[in-house]
């Protein structure tokens, strides 16, 4: 009986450790150190966010994979700021993310879930989320121009009349 309880306790505690070392991004679990989620490939996105992300990476590396340290506000806030910078830069450049973890809310949700699993949920002082930049003017409609719109209306009207004629002869 005691060996069963020991095995059950070991499995429960091992699950907590694995929960913090694995973060799921886009359905794929990453087992690399969480600090590696701050690395973006060389390019304009990385260049724009060097200051925020280097500070966050330094703090994460200093924690030595300690969940209590990594989930604390002074460490978690720069991590969120780094991904906010990535996200804002991607929108500003109107570019796709060079890797799935760059500027992705799934990374922040995964880190938040890992902190909750380690019984260190993010405090109310740190917003684990991404906000749209103030300069974003939203998605734009595609303007085809008046001649193309008139041609489209003529084609659609012809198709509608044809459909009515076909249904009328049935």
Question: How would you characterize this protein structure?
Answer:
- Residues 1-19 form the signal peptide.
- Keywords: Membrane, Signal, Transmembrane, Transmembrane helix.
- The protein has 7 helices and 2 strands, in the order H-E-E-H-H-H-H-H-H.
- Helix 1 (2-21) packs antiparallel against helix 6 and helix 3 runs antiparallel to helix 5.
- It has 170 residues and is mostly helical.
- The longest helix is centred in the C-terminal third of the chain and has 23 residues, at 146-168.
- 58% of the residues lie in helices and 4% in strands.
- It starts with a helix and ends with a helix.
- The chain has helices at residues 2-21, 44-48, 50-62, 67-70, 73-93, 105-117, 146-168; strands at 23-25, 28-30.
- It has a two-stranded antiparallel sheet.
- The model is unreliable at 8-21 (pLDDT under 50).
Could you give a short description of this structure?
Helices cover 58% and strands 4% of the residues. It has 7 helices and 2 strands.
Protein topology:
Elements lengths: L1 H20 L1 E3 L2 E3 L13 H5 L1 H13 L4 H4 L2 H21 L11 H13 L28 H23 L2
Antiparallel strand pairs: 1-2
Helix pairs in contact: 1-6, 3-5
Distance between the termini: 78 Å
Count of the separate structural domains:
1
Shape from CA axes? elongated
Q: Stretches where pLDDT falls below 50 for ≥5 residues?
A: 8-21
Radius of gyration: 25 Å
**What structural class should be given to the helix and strand makeup?**
mainly alpha
Query: Mean pLDDT, rounded to whole units?
Result: 75
The tally of beta strands, per DSSP, is 2
Helical element count?
7
> What portion of residues belong to β-strands?
under 5%
> Secondary-structure element order, as H and E?
HEEHHHHHH
- Determine the fraction of residues in helical runs and give it as a percent range: 55-70%
Strand order in the sheet with the most strands: 1-2
User: Quick one: biggest sheet?
Assistant: 2 strands, antiparallel
């Amino acid at each position: 009986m005691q060996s069963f309880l020991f095995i059950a306790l070991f499995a429960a505690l091992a699950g907590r450790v694995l929960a913090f070392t694995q973060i799921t991004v886009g359905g794929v679990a990453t087992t690399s150190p969480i600090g590696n989620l701050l690395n973006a490939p060389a390019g304009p996105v990385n260049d724009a966010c060097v200051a925020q992300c280097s500070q966050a990476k330094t703090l994460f590396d200093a924690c030595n994979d300690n969940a209590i340290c990594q989930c604390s506000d002074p460490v978690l806030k720069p991590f969120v700021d780094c991904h906010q910078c990535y996200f804002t830069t991607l929108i500003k450049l109107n570019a796709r993310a060079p890797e799935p973890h760059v500027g992705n809310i799934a990374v922040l949700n995964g880190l938040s879930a890992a902190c909750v699993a380690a019984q260190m949920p993010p405090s109310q002082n740190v917003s684990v989320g991404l906000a749209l930049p103030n300069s974003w003017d939203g998605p734009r409609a595609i303007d085809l121009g008046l001649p193309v719109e008139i041609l489209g209306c003529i084609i659609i009207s012809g198709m509608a009349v044809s459909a009515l004629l076909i249904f009328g002869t049935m």
